[in-house]
Amino acid sequence: MKRIVTAIVHNRSGVLNRVTGLLAKRQFNIESISVGRTETEGVSKMTFVVDVEDNRKLEQLTKQLNKQIDVLKVSDITDNAIVARELALVKVISNPQIRSEIQGIIEPFRATIIDVSKESVTVQVTGKSDKVDALIELLRPYGVKELARTGLTAFKRGNQPQQAEVKSYSLLN
Amino acid sequence: MKAEASVKEQTATKTGADLLVESLIEQGVDTLFGYPGGAVLPIYDAIYRAEGSFDHVLPRHEQGAIHAAEGYARVANRAGVVIGTSGPGATNLVTGIADAMMDSIPLVVFTGQVAKGVIGTDAFQESDIMGITTPITKHNYQVQNIEELPRIVKEAFHIATTGRPGPVVVDIPKDISSEVYAKDVIHHFHLPGYQPTLKPNPLQITKLHDALKQAKKPVILTGSGIIHAGASEELRTFVRNYEIPVVSTLLGLGSYPGSDRLSLGMGGMHGTYAANMALYECDLLINIGARFDDRLTGNLKHFAPTAKVAHVDIDPAEIGKNVPASIPIVSDAKAALKALNNKEVTSLDHKEWLDQSWARKADYPLWYHQKDEDIVPQWLVKKVYDYTRGEAVVTTDVGQHQMWAAQYYHFDEPNRWVTSGGLGTMGYGFPAAIGAQLADLESTCVAIVGDGGFQMTLQELSVLQERGLPVKIIIVNNQALGMVRQWQEKFYDGRFSSSIIDTQPDFVKLAESYQIPGYFIDSPKTLEEVLPDILANDKPAVVDCRVLQSENVYPMIAPGKGLHEMIGVKP
Ligand SMILES: Cc1ncc(C[n+]2csc(CCOP(=O)(O)OP(=O)(O)O)c2C)c(N)n1
Ligand SMILES: [Mg+2]
Asked: PROSITE patterns from the xrefs (chain A) (predicted)?
């Protein structure tokens, strides 16, 4: 099962190495990791999308993360109401003739063309991972020259619905 | 302990190394195990200038230093302190760091590092010790600024010795240890992400107490968490109150008196029949401070299949890791036992279970065939036990002799048993005995080692020579890598690939070259004549004791088998 786990970490040198090393050592399947600074000086946030077998494995993951001295807080936010976004840059082979065709494809995704050359355009798309996946699939027939994804970053919404409703907001199952 | 405390302190002109020395003194450190080199020259200079502040133990290899520090930590129940230089000095410490991590031994390890400006350039004797030790430390630091050095040392000791203990590495670039510093030092203890849970949740204690009242077949599993917590007294009270049989892990030996009637001995791969069957058949398993290691549990499918499991551990990540617990208790063992002992004592309805356990203990004792001409290794350990009246501090190496020591030397007190459990590090036993003896100069300290393992770190004989430390080294010499030989006999049709060592040094001459008395014993008669005095006198000794090579460690649970599938239970 896929889970979104966030870790608030003390931004000391080596913390990224310690956290990723521990996940590798314990053989957790990581789909993506994103890291960045937060509103608090010296504190960063990591967002992991992990694929774990069962709840026991998941519990191990959060416990092992929590055990690290520089990890301040670990949350599995999969079942909360969350906002989750990923950014992707896709360089697609295109000549002037098909550029407008591509424009048409990306529009419903609210993606934008941020760079143009004679043989290619670069599309920027932001959204949930499945939306990003879908757009990439649509662009693939034109020839994807280069693709870069940031991995998911996420946090809880300002308003959390009652427990019973929570599931329907879940992003990944 | 409060996680934040600020102390400002006026200091005169000092180097970073002086700050380190001061910080060590402030931590109450009086014994250091270390080896000098380029990157720690400023530190060694500061130690020299702080003459009289420390007993600095100079081993003959950094691995010797760190195992000695581990032995010291085990017996003294406080942090062992190690210093090594950058590059090869630091990498020579790696085995000991990994060993301490596996067995939760509190160590603070200082490594020198090349100057900050050249880190990352493959400078002379540079190694990425942060990268290398990250997976095998509880935490590690590289000091980036001189002013943070006192804070880091404070944090390092706090982290190493509290919660679940473990090794902490502090990497100090040479320019920082030699930098002259004259400003205010700010000790700013700041560990918001580290708050071990020390007190048990009262609800879980009540749950355990209720489960206890229901239990017909309860058993207690004692791990080294009890020893770390200093909870042996509380454990005795608890066991006495309810009369529950006790099984120990390898590292938990001594937490409950091994010679007591309620002790069933060690469980696991080479555990006793009574202990393993108690784990297999119990209806309530109370694990206090053990981590359900695979050498204890055997095949998990057959581990305590009908039991309700209560698991007390200070490390929440251990609970539910290998064996699901229906009563999880995150707590220091002492606090949990105290809370349990505060509950009303009721007598249990478990007479049948007790009788059965005692009957098994009597009917299936550990066994060996005594020989007239040859020394049987089990008998050798038994003799060491008898001659030291069970009061020695015993260290071991890794292999068959280790298991026999665990089986036949009954520890009645904690902090007397020093062995490498989780990592199973050959070469551990003898240097660990040096540290153990330094931590307890009054007791007889016996290193029970194999002929193989002893040869991995025997250069430390120099330390005995230098200090006249009366460590007794008993080489259980089967002229083989016995444990490997045993597995090859059992599981590889007797193809003894690289496990028989016919060529042996003359250990007596070797000892004598270090001016240590050496003895060669190859018959039971000689053993009975000379061993009592060797163990009683105040001199070190190297005893080359030739034992029967063909002996195997029994009982045994073969890999993949369950607790109830022991072989070699009876002669
Ligand atoms: C550093 C290291 N290398 C290899 C092993 C694998 N090993 C485990 S026991 C053993 C044999 C040890 O022989 P010896 O020290 O003579 O003890 P014995 O089993 O004969 O009592 C070996 C090679 C180990 N545990 N540690
Ligand atoms: Mg041997």
From this structure: ACT
